[in-house]
Protein 1
Amino acid sequence: MSKIDDYGFTDFNIIREGSSEYSLEDGTIVRLRAFILKAIKDDSDLRLNERTFAASFSPPSMKGNFIPGIPLEDAVKKVKKENLNYETVSEEWNEYKLSSGEVIAVKAILVGVSLTEIYDENGDPIYGVQIQTIHKITKPTMK
């Protein structure tokens, strides 16, 4: 057992990490990742502290001017185009082996995306993304 387990949490090791990738109708690539940061397991429950991240990679023709001081929360109010069409390029699982023996896999999936009128500090357009995180747990096999 690790010190993390001693503190009442469930330690884990990363088995595999991957990203989900989507190609938007405007040529932009969106990459998503879901990460487990902390796990707590007791006899009947598993609770996860996790985060999802998104990054977009737009063609040079879509560059615009960054305007400092606009909070990111306001970007969703300045939508240029809602519900962009996209194609799935890949959807990858991130897998973690818990110290209790289970393997948990998480995957971030794009469920909706909108283009805003706001640009980041690199001049890339900011997209509003809706992400769903799915999980699967594999129990350890008994020998």
Protein 2
Amino acid sequence: MNKRILIFFQLTIVLIVISCSKSPYLKNNFVPPPIPISFRDCVIPPEPDYSNEASWAALPWKKDMADSVPNLSVKNKQTEALADVFFIHPTLFLEPTDDKVYKWNADISDSVINGKVDLGSILNQASVFNGSCRVFAPRYRQAHISSFFTEDRKSGEAALSLAYSDVKNAFLYYLEHHNQGKPFIIAGHSQGTRHAGFLIKELIENTDLQNKLIAAYIIGMPVPKNFFQNIPVCSDSGQTGCFVTWATYREGFFPSNYQSFKGGNCVNPLTWTIDSAKINRRYNLGGITWKFNQVVKHINGARIKDGILWVDKPHVPGRIFIRLKNYHVADYNLFWFNIRENVRQRVHNYFNNK
């Protein structure tokens, strides 16, 4: 093969392992576009109706991206699953809003944003649960990425509160109409993890529902040590009634918001413990490329450092060219098969221990 063609091919693999090439998170110093109006003065998108299936990105009885599997070694088992997962997708409302009607929160009928949610988060993240759980993933009026960075904190918090109100309403609708007494997992990523944390604190912790919580996978955001009162961080792979969390960066790199993570919770998805030992990549059962078309076994090792998860460069052809240090978009992808197996184990243990 021509040497230039080979190098191009290797670089292509590197990029899709980490993320889609257009993601702003590929930039280690990403700064989101500002929003030119306060939340108080902006137009609010219509409230979702969760009795309408179009208000859900994934439901177990409809065809959607959460049904996907990367190869024939795994099966979509939602029809036989004894447990559910309520999955909350991350921020995909990223572009400048100058020419948009809705500035701070996305409209759930926006087909462009929905496409990014479905082909990004639902395909790459929510699908990991379909081997053991029925997948429920609501669309919600997600807050714009600037909500996390803006100096207008009142507007940012208002946008995030509006988004959370949708997630809460979707969960309540799920409980009343779809749960049917099943135990469940709460899962999310990034903004979705923020909402998942508050949902657990408000509606699950210290209620009868806590007995039905198999585990929470709240990934990609800081979770302080004492965030929950009675739901511990998972300290082994089979524990139930607990939560796991991590945020992934290149070994040696400290993100700008490092202080938010320092001293907080972090679980190593290669061991499912909170031990800080460096774990060899042979324990990585396999990562998934962002386009969901390639499995890469033993893609990287990992260790916990001061509340964040450090990983070595993905072991793929052309890894010498990788310069990325922020692996936020790959928090699930890099450990996809480990997560899937761990979900199976926790669901199994939940029913075994009843």
